[in-house]
Amino acid sequence: MTSQTIDSTAKAEFMTAAAALLGPKGFATDPDVLAPWLTDWRGRYTGRALALATPADTAQVAALVKLCGKYGVAIVPQGGNSGMCGGATPDASGHELLINMRRMDTIGPVDTATRQVACGAGVILQTLHEAVARQGLRFALTLGGKGSATIGGLISTNAGGTQVLRHGSMRAQVLGLEAVLPDGSVLNQLVPLKKDNRGFDLKQLMIGSEGILGIVTAATLRLEPAVAARAVLWVGLPSIQAARTLLLHAQSLADRALEGFEVIPRHCLDAVLEYLPTARAPLDEAHPWNVLIELVADAAAADALPELAERLLVSAFEAGLVSDATIAANDAQAEAFWWLRDSISPAERAKGPAMQHDISVPVDRMADFMDYAAPLMEREFPGTTALGFGHLGDGNIHFHILAPTGVVPGEWETGQGQAISHRVNDLVTQWHGSISAEHGIGQMKRDELARLGDPAALHVLHAIKAALDPQGLFNPGKLI
Q: Would you say the pTM of this structure is higher than 0.85?
């Protein structure tokens, strides 16, 4: 799907009006300025844009949206441009306007009493982490791209990360929200209310909508007490079924102290150790599967955390659940363990082409799915390697199918790779799962959602889109 063109006279009028509205800091047409924002993070999609707009505040966003509506100019909202599905990349027409929110990066006063903070959509996740940490609090959502991902982007894709097991995805962190709608009006629901039954929860409608219904400009976010103590464990196991059993054991014993539970197969760990020359394996011997566990405590429970970690391991050994394990001796070693986990994607990418699937199935069936799907894919596509890693505790595995040796990158992805992804998505749907657990749909999975999505749900999505954006100007060609 490409955006409709506008005639040269209307285009000139729009460009003049937009430049006047935003000023030289907020409006650019220089190809060198636009270039970094025209290709997605994975390098799969590259488009063209009419211009790059970087508004300074909500009033400018609203005025710009009204201007786009007047002239029929399509809009592609963008945060840190770190998405995984091409959802913030313009099409090839050159007629779409990129609206990047990075200038809207104000962080309001941190309310330590209510544990919340309001901030602009352009705030970088890591910057928010640092700001609230200075007040003895934390924002309990993190991911590998925290140095570039923005709050607006995280909201628009309902991002997850490694702490969903305890704290939930972005939906659970957003207490209030402000967004500019396709008609240029401002939806202001920044003030959090514990109870509010005035119809639909409109902020939740915006979360995960990938910019097709509105442009998120600000949010009020939930904060948690700072972590006073942590225990990070690395465990070696014989199978993913053993990992599932260990998860249940850890949940029973540690309860809300259990913040992270990441599964890592041997292939992924080997790839990371090859990719990072200075890294070392946490355990002396290799194991078919590894689990990275993080336990945390606030100040009130900090003293009891070391004993809890030891009790968890001892009881797991006594029950025959683990083959070997170690507890990080200090924060530096704990971060080294997480460094291994966070390096899986670039390490696998360095080894060669792969089809990467961000999937989920019911939590209690994920281990069974992996045992079934991985060997099936390798049989049906000889020479490939199927592996899964990630957030076992919330039923979200990153299921990668590595290409056979000797294939031509690019050609394989658009050839056999597409057949592989179709097959994986079919399997996930048969297992009552989701083809997008936390990265969104974007343009990469749009056609697959149309092929496999529930017809009733798709009808509702299209109806809402048509009602709010009758001109079809907000992020066309994405999600639906």
A: yes
What is the rounded distance in angstroms from the CA atom of residue 21 to the CA atom of residue 60? 7
- DSSP β-bridge partners for residue 354: 402
What distance in Å separates the CA atoms of residue 29 and residue 15, rounded to the nearest whole number?
Answer: 10
Cα–Cα distances in angstroms (integers) from residue 341 to residues 51, 60, 164, 292, in the given order = 38, 41, 16, 8
Contact 365, 388 (CB under 8 A): no
Tens-level pLDDT at each residue, the chain (480 residues): 456 678 889 999 999 999 999 999 999 999 999 999 999 988 889 999 999 999 999 999 999 999 999 999 999 999 999 888 999 999 999 999 999 999 999 999 999 999 999 999 999 999 999 999 999 999 999 887 899 999 999 999 999 888 887 888 999 999 999 999 999 999 999 999 989 999 999 999 999 999 999 999 999 999 999 999 999 999 999 999 999 999 999 999 999 899 999 999 999 999 999 999 999 999 999 999 999 999 999 998 999 999 999 999 999 999 999 999 999 999 999 999 999 999 998 898 888 999 999 999 998 999 999 999 999 999 999 999 999 999 888 888 899 999 999 999 889 999 999 999 999 999 999 999 999 988 899 999 999 999 999 999 999 999 999 999 999 999 999 999
The answer to whether the CB of 96 falls within 8 A of the CB of 75 is: yes
Q: What is the b/e burial string over 17-26, where b = at least 16 CB atoms within 10 angstroms of the residue's CB?
A: ebbebbeeeb
Tell me the torsion sign for CA atoms 298, 301, 303, 308. Answer: negative
